[in-house]
Amino acid sequence: MKFSGMKPSLTAALLLVASPCVAAQQNEDDYRHVYLSGGALQLCSSFNPNNCDDADWIDSDNMRTDRYLNISEQFRIEATSDRVWSAYREETRKKVLDALELIHERINEDIVSERVFEREFTRRATLQTYNSLSDAEYAKVIDLLEVPMSSSFPEIVNVEESLDKASAKVFRRFADFAEQNVSNEEKPVVYFSTAGYRDPYSRIDFYQSTLSQLGLEARWLPLDEAVIAARAENRCSELNSVQEELFGAYDRNRVYRDDYQRQVEFCKSGDTEYEMLANADAVFFAGNNANQIRNAFVKDDNSPSELLRMMVARVQQKKLVVGGTSAGTAVLTAKPMISNGTTASAIKNGSVATNPPPFGCDLDNTCPANTGPDTLTYHPFGGLSLFHFASLDTHFSERGRHGRLVRLAADSTTPLSIGIDENTAMLVNLEKGDFDIIGERGVFFVENAQGAANAVAATFHYLVAGASGMMSPFGMQTAEFADGSNIVQSEPTTNFLTDRGLIDSMRVLCGDRKEMTLINKEYRLVAQIDDSSRTATAGGECQIINGKIGMAYQPEEQL
């Protein structure tokens, strides 16, 4: 799939664009090419006042404070029309229509906030219908009921008032990261991508406000999978129809008129993105769906697009730095790219090299063959290939993803895999493998993974914020433990399938214990250290180099 209007000579010229010599160029040992965040970065904003220490600054007359829905008869009929519901979900469609009518009768208003709507939908009389909907079906209903957004009322972020100081600190570090290649008198130009979102417009205001507040020249990069498809099919003028087909996103042209029209014009321009990124100092990939981001920058034959080639070249030349969060981090890998799955399913059923199943696909019968909503799926050819050391996973310890990462590493024979905790980031020099860990929690490294039918095992390392080291594509080379004092405030747990059970329980290995065992439902986890291991505590957490981990599915009838 080629970009229209892009000539090889222009591509070559852009690759050779030289940045002026800048005073801010850091010492070679301190330079970092990529910024990898584990996600869950919660900032105070007018749309999320619960994340604010003080919400008195929010002005509802000038800021977006909620999403509003129109549940009048006209919109209820449109949201449950045959046009947008499959025939085999006819009974569910009728139940949704009945539920919407009941909600309207209870509230007795046409326009309601999404928060009120969800509260009413989850009452006893309509809860069963609510629970029967897949994520895609519920999102479709919200899309078709949504009231148009005015660009005069954007979501505004207030970093200083954020309750979660760790999130604010991680975002501020990205601003410092983006300044590496500019002089002190210049603002770094940062393009942020929302290509991973089903609704590409819903997070524009958030990132625009956040990055601008941090002193960056923030600009939206409108390129996504729908634009690529629309250009190839000469359908830029009907981009909304392409979004329906690819993302299951409805009426975005009605709800976000200005941003939608901006993306249509971008689509028609053909190659504006080359000029954008040729002048960028940094690119930031927001999260949600790694596969969707990949499809915007990698061709159908798994070769990089010309734009991605340009980005890689500029990163190598130290003219561009790249950051990501959540799925925006996972997609940066050149190794097998994880796209879905739980630890329980991964250990029991293994992995599948296929596209991820839709969320809640078991509810509306849209799961592809041989997959379910919890299946571990991955792309064997990697993501954007900007990070060549390891496979990447995010929201890591908080969602108990250790088992799924070990399984992927074992099944794909990947020498090194890395899982990054929430509110945490890792900054990496791609030439030498030097890295620093920042934020609130830690990073989990998996080496030499092996797997059997219902079991996995590996060598692991766990370092927390403040630690640093050097790695190669084959494993950890050196590591310096952190000596910080940040204490994780959450209650400890032994649930290692979906929570921090491994990390919380591992603290005993920094004491007199050499081995620990956890049992969760029909799964067993064993972690141990030996004479080759090193341990150190930091803020109540146990850091380990050269630990051993094993997980197994062991139903009682097999014991």
Automatic annotation (TrEMBL):
Gene3D superfamilies reported for this sequence: 3.40.50.880
Signal sequence annotation: 1-23
UniProt KW Signal keyword: yes
Record protein name field: Cyanophycinase
InterPro entries recorded: Class_I_gatase-like (IPR029062), Peptidase_S51_cyanophycinase (IPR011811)
Superkingdom, natural source: Bacteria
Any one Gene Ontology molecular-function term assigned to this protein's record: hydrolase activity
Keywords: Signal
Catalytic-site annotation from UniProt: S326, H395, E422
